[in-house]
Amino acid sequence: MEKEKASLLSSISSLTSEARAFKQHTSADKAIRYEVRTAALALADVLEHPVEQALRIIFESAPPLFALRIAFEAGFLNQLGDGRTQTADSLSKISGADRTLIARIFRILTASKMVDEVDVDTYAANDLTRALLKPGIGDANTHGCDNVNPIFTKLPDYLNQTSWVNPDTYTMGPHVFTWGKPLYKRLQSEPSKSALFNKIMSGFKQNRENWVDIFPFEEKQKELSGHGVSADQGGVAGPDARAADEGDESKGVGRVEGLCDRDYGA
Fold this sequence. Notes:
This protein has helices at residues 2-24, 30-46, 50-60, 62-74, 88-95, 99-111, 127-132, 137-161, 174-179, 183-189, 191-207, 217-224, 237-244, and strands at residues 86-87, 116-119, 122-124, 229-231, 254-256. It is mainly alpha-helical. A 3-stranded antiparallel sheet has the order 1-3-2. The protein has a two-stranded parallel ribbon with strand order 4-5. The longest helix has 25 residues, at 137-161.
């Protein structure tokens, strides 16, 4: 068995090197990388027993998000942004937080590969850390934990009360059930949450590929024969909708923008 294990590890190591080189190739766009990554995840799933996989999904999905939320709120993660390593003790002195608590939070972050542990209770930023510190990305974590996750928590109650009917109205959906009003109405009435949401949208625009460059828009548009509609669903989608209209293939395509501040039925 040791021989088989060594052979597998050697093969995976070689594949990792090839995948790293593949990712750096200029022609490996997001769609291609996603396809290869899906195959790599399928390989990881093969090595796990179904019960182990089920328990991991149940118990390991939420803790990394909330550990990250705490690390942002307490300022732990930002201390790694300048490239210097930090220990649980040094972070305790900087923040005033209990060093044991810091070590426990970072145990989750390092297990999730969001931070590297380079020595016992000693932490350093990696590529994922630097990505999380980009404008808007950490704000997305805050928004998700504080505003989105509570909706998922209440979703079983909502669906039970609606006799398990698929939500089809914006004004009576899960967000209203949880928070009392639709998302964009809530943002209009709560400036701090609106500012946070706008930071997220700006961050997404800066840090992602445009879907027009990924989705086979021209091919799909020809199938529609000029009868399609491009819609700005709010926030970051507007520039994409406009970009999609710039080519000759988009002639005859209607565009609807600014849906986020109206109560539409869908």
